[in-house]
Amino acid sequence: MLIMRWLGEIAGFPADAVHIAGEVPFMRSTDTGKAAGKIDMVVALPEGDALRWHGLEVQAVYFSGDSMESEFAALRDDTAEPLPYPSGIRRPDWRSSGAKRLMPQLEIKGPTLRRWGAKLAVAVDRPFFAAIGGPSPVPCKDLNEGDIIWLVTRIDAQWGLARDHWEVLTLEDSNKRLQAATTVSREDFEETLRSKLSPLDPTQTQ
């Protein structure tokens, strides 16, 4: 609930009047009419017939490498301190988590929420935010100056979730951060391509 309360405070909602809803349908299939996309959470303030609200997407980090199952098994079986050291070899996959997963969500939902007069908040942890540039030199705290509210969390000394940083960015600036890559030159691309090419086997038909 920490993140929802935090977003409610940023939006200026009274703490005792905040309402939340999860998995709210946002898109509908043109074939079946059924929900085809949802907003993770919505933090709202009902005011009679009026309704003020902002969407919230929570983005975890994908890992590349060994399966995580061994780590969960160790956590279940180990009761000693400190926590068991990871046994597998893996690394956080920022590209899959950001540019491939989160950015399409922002591109789909952000423009519509902007037209509706609402914001889309994104909750990530501190290493994730650092991987896409970290806090701005002068973080914007004005909700009128952007589209995406970035809520950055950290793990405290008691292994609990804690607030770390928040700022407002435009949809365009958010996508630039998530992209965080440039196209290689044609020469570099073709040099790599040549090293990977292999003849097509004419005997294989499928």
Strand content is: 25-35%
Nearest-angstrom radius of gyration? 21 Å
Structural class: alpha/beta
Give the tally of β-strands. Answer: 8
The residue-averaged pLDDT reads 88
Approximate shape: globular
Number of helices: 6
Task: Please summarize the sheet with the most strands.
Answer: 6 strands, mixed
Tally of domains: 1
How many angstroms separate the termini?
Answer: 53 Å
Topology as a string of helices (H) and strands (E) = HEEEEHEHEHEEHH
The stretches of 5 or more residues where confidence is low (pLDDT under 50) are none
- In spatial order, strands of the major sheet run 1-2-3-6-7-8
Q: Please estimate the helix content.
A: 25-40%
Topology overview:
Elements: H1 2-11, E1 19-28, E2 35-47, E3 50-58, E4 62-65, H2 69-77, E5 90-93, H3 94-116, E6 120-125, H4 126-131, E7 148-155, E8 161-169, H5 171-179, H6 186-196
Parallel strand pairs: 3-6, 6-7
Antiparallel strand pairs: 1-2, 2-3, 4-5, 7-8
